[in-house]
GNAT family N-acetyltransferase (Priestia megaterium), 169 residues
Amino acid sequence: MSTKRIYLTPFETTHIQYLHKWLNDERAIQMIGRTPLAYEEVVQEVEKKRMNNDLILGIESDEKELVGWVFLKDIDYAHGRASIGILLSSESRGHGYGQMAMEQMIDLGFKQLRLNKIYLTTRGINEQAIELYKKIGFITEGKLRNHAYVDGKYVDTYFMGILASEWNK
């Protein structure tokens, strides 16, 4: 039995073409809550993250294939907190890459950046992600009722967080 691993690598400009495809995936649009984006808009979004000093990393598989990206944004050193986000290619979902990438990024945030809290928001319909976040150790801190409109109906948005003191990896 082989153990799959992932590696967090610098997110390069050449990776934007893949991100453009992933962001325009039908499921990603539904879960993230975006409209389809033109390539230039994705370039602008990545540049905005870089200008904001967000930590953006690519997720590579054992086969050196880029399978997603993970990032810490809104990094606030004064208050010791940041928001985490992740997106995997549709082909890479369900293989454990998301959990491994999130755990590595959380570890980096707590141990290297010395953050006290990492948080996220997710839609209530994204049940697979919510279960993953709970498995990792995130606690549901709040629910915004009927906060997003998806496929003709309103859905809840959850605010989840994990503290450095709760992280024992």
User: Anything to note?
Assistant: The chain has one domain: 6-166. The chain has a mean pLDDT of 92. Residues 46 and 83 are 16 Å apart (CA to CA). DSSP finds five helices and seven strands in the chain.
